[in-house]
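The freezer alarm interrupted the setup, so I double-checked each line after restarting. Inputs confirmed:
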Amino acid sequence: MKHTLRQVFRSGKFVTGFIIFSAILLTVIFYPMIIRDDPLQIIGQGTFFPPGIYVNIADSMSSTRYILNLDDAAAKRIASKLNDADREAIREWLVGAGIPEGDIDIANTESLLGLWVSNYDTTVRIPGMTNADRNYYIRLNRSLDGLLSEEGVTIAATNPDTNALEATGTVELTEYANIREVANVRILPLGTDNFGRDVLTQLVTATGVSLRIGFVAGLIATLIGLVLGLVSGYIGGVVDDVILFITNLFTVIPGFILLVLISFSIGQEQRGAFVIAVVIGLTSWVWTTRAVRAQVISLRNRDHVNLSKLSGHSIAHIIIRDVLPYIASYVIMAFILQISSAILAEAALSILGLGPRTTDVPTLGLMMNWALIYQAHILGKWWAYLPIILVIALIAFSLNLMNTGLDQVFNPALRD
Amino acid sequence: MNRKSLLSILLGLLVIFALALAACGGTTTTQEEPAVVEEPTVAEPAVEEPAATEEPAAEEPAATEEPAATEEPAAEEPAAETEADPNALPRNETLYNNGQQWGAVVGWNPYSNSNNNAMAIAQQDNARVIMFETPYLYNMLDGQVYPLLADGPYEWNDARTELTFKIKPAAHWNDGTPVTAEDVAYTWATHIKYNTPTGAANIDFIEDIVAVDAQTVTIKAKLNEDGAAVNPLLVAAYVSTNYVIQKAWTETLEERVAGDATALLADTAEDVAYSGPYGKYFADDSKVIYVRDDNYWGQDASMWGKLPVPKYLAHTIFKDNAAGTTALQAGEVDVSQQFNANVQDLWLVDGLPISTYLPDAPYGIGASLPTAFFNLNSPGLDQVAVRKAIAMAVDYPTIIANAMTNQSATFDQVPRSLMNPTAGEQATYDHEAVADLQWVGNDIDGANAMLDEAGIVDTDGDGIREYNGENLSYIALCPNGWSDWQAAIEVVAAAGEKIGIEITTNFPEWSVYQTVVTKSDAPLPEDYDIFMMWSDGAGPTQPWGRIRKLMSSEFIGMASNWNGNWGQYSNPDADALINAIPGMTDPAALNEAYTELVRIYLTDVPSFTLMYRPQSFHTVNESVWTNFPHDGDGTEPPVPPLNLTDGWSIAGLYNLELVNP
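Predicted 3D structure, all chains:
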């Protein structure tokens, strides 16, 4: 046993897969201990907030102020509101409104904005301008307001007695807050999804749920496959015929179609994560059965098995003691593959909207499903679907690597 | 040997069976998807009607014949244009739509409403008038009707029992024969004779429609025992919601079907005569194209004075919303009637020449009120306190921001009532009088206090309140695949937890859902506690029509109730007001009645509005065409954002301009 383990961990492929899988597993276990947020809590009012650090504006105004005199601050401020395309658009508008082209210097922000402020009028209709253009200029005009001002921003509050606005302070343009001193800062490394939920927290929980689904489904499929394969292979005869007949039936029907049909007929109200796992397990045992049966047939006439028979051991005893240990390595490898394919099956089912019901738990497939429904892929909201695809790929990849590594160890013919 | 062959046959059969099942499964899901966007435009399929039998074979040859028929007027010109290839229409003459047509067109029969021909045939509050025309056009922005086939405004007699209007002398059919009063009268007679959906929906309100002379039509209202019209509101609405169909063609059709009502409604009507500016050019399962009739009567000075600008109207049949959005982004669609999530990203992030009616949120004009209905028979939900507490606790800003991606006015902007956000409807009730009843949501303390006060508290310490010793535990539902509704229902469910009421969600398939909630002749099943359905949008009978469908008990007992009040609410006071309003003419009395209805609705909470939703989504890409209707576009009367096809919005087709002429 010790020797086998040592050999297994000498396989580069197995170790790589093992490390990736362990990293995922450890994250799933330890992340919720550190970050205790409810993964399904709707925190964002709005959809698909981009990844980043979210700083509370009111808190940052009341935190300690530090004055930093940075030379490029004004330039950065202007660049964020007025890029080259905007300057070009301003020029176009001014020319359309009859300003001589020679008077316009789009590189000189001050003169450009001066011309803009004195000429721009929302009601002027420039020939060839679409409504989309018109809206663009209105938005641009709004964002340019006060851009060159050197004055600070005045903060005002409503006086409850008079209902009038009263200045309560100013924020100078050179004032900075230290993010560590702001009371409310929320880091959203992967932004939010269409419900306004924290994608990372949800992703970790979903990975855990998907792994559990994979484990349960893999266990069921492997158990069924193993038992049927052992019985069919060892006993043979009519029992073998019957089991093989059923196995062949299921082999011919594409497993995924069966899965879709069963999930659909169960109905949404019954579809919890566990039920889905059972359904996946019940539809994916076929190849394990066939492979186990084939191995058992080759084992059944070996000397030690015959010896055991002659010793009068029961069938169960022979199967468990004299047959099973010889195929254990194969069964473990099959189990690993079953886990991987079950996770993929759950994801595929959920993308079709046939996965577990939504409110209970997040799963990788459900997250993909909602990202697709809200068109994250069309709108370029990569954080809502790309990390999920990566996690699914990594899980499948690491499990397959482990399987290949084991194969090389247990099957000397495959060793390099 | 024998066993093996038997086995292979068996297996073969199984495979075929499995594949067939899978194929069926596939089509149901793809059909489900479009329902998401179809839903706001669903007009009540008032009465059950025989499904039109599809005759795909008949369509193919007709597609090639049709252009020849429409060519007739063009033949007058010396050099007749060569017909465009339906697969390569001149872009500068074609206006592309999406979001209206899902699946192949079945027929062109204006008597039937199972043509699946959304662009051409939709008899509704804002009737779609590109091919068939109504006497008047309804304008949802100012609430007025404007004459189309009719000449000048209609007139009531003094007793308000007869409505009279004239037909424009210039109006004629595409075959050149004039539209007459006799056509209007015969259309009605046919609706009644063959019990069409239109006939069945109006027979309780309209006694008869007669042609006084060639140009004059009189609609006689059905009278009640006092000699007054049963419902003058619905009589007046008839003239802007129902098409005028040619008498000569109807007679041909009757002859063809030998008087059989089922066959009449199932006829695909490839030879139908129409008075509108566009007719069939091409239709298959990938697209449907309409071509302008250059002999259209509306170019007469008495109507538009010119032809609509685009020569072709085309609608590609997309697989789903995502495909439609991609086409809109690529400039392959000019006018989009689809829910495009985060529509503002199309111009803010992608910088595309795309815009909506309003430049900022809510981007469109809210017209209908997607509503959560309570099952009033569920234990606990028969208590006003429980219903109102749930409604008060719901986080509406999140529903609007997340589920609708801000494409709805908020309840701060438009306080809840029974009216949609249009100025006309908002003016119909006294805001001050009901201000203290209009909850804004997220009021967890208020909801908890209300439940405590009603004595509905948690006595066994499990965190869930009890009523009559039973935990308050409910299921909130909406159809599966209706994404914005699903997201909204999730937010409703989240509110329950905060006030000690357990709410879980369930999304059944639409086919199951619709049969359950529209069965109003029996109590709703136990697991349908809180469920979403729609309400009426903008129209000539609104807000009365919407209120009736949200509150009137007349629908309880209907085996197939496609009208409303699905929670089966019954209040004699509300019923009396709903019955009285159509006969009222005094504005002050009307205002009082509407205010009282709002008060009853917000006090009893039989259902509650979750968001406002536009009549149609209306997003345009100005890569090819420009001068689409938008807020402040200077049109008088204002052109509503209804895709240039519905009601008065057809006027927008005459204002279009090319970006690069």
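Quick read of the result. Residues 83-144 of chain A form one domain.
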